[in-house]
Amino acid sequence: MRRTNPAGIALIRVSEGCELTAYKCPAGIWTIGYGSTHCVFPGLVISKADAGQRLMSDLIVAERAVEHSVTVPLSDNQFSALVSFTFNLGAGSLEKSTLLKRLNAGDHGAVPAELMKWCHVGGRTSEGLRKRREAEGKLWVTPC
Fold this sequence. Notes:
mainly alpha; Lysozyme
């Protein structure tokens, strides 16, 4: 199985931040660590090491989704940018996206602009998501 490269992991860590106490994200989902939503409940507290382990485990789900959905060759940075996107929004968002359709049609150049369409929470632009999508777009175009 293909794995996220160090640049992709760093992007996710910075974008997600690390919260050791469970909280509700802007979408109203209980979250902890570096954006983990699996088995999170109010009052849950974890260690920094647990947060790192959750991140690596959660990454596998996003990596598999990208591997399964993308039918064209990707560089390591391109793969990792899509893993960050999928980690944040879920496999369903990737699978139904115009981004994926255009990419699988061979339009690699469309991806940075398509990423920027995914910056909203509750119908409003999120500055944090805008910055994340820009970072993913920059990673996408960065040669390995």
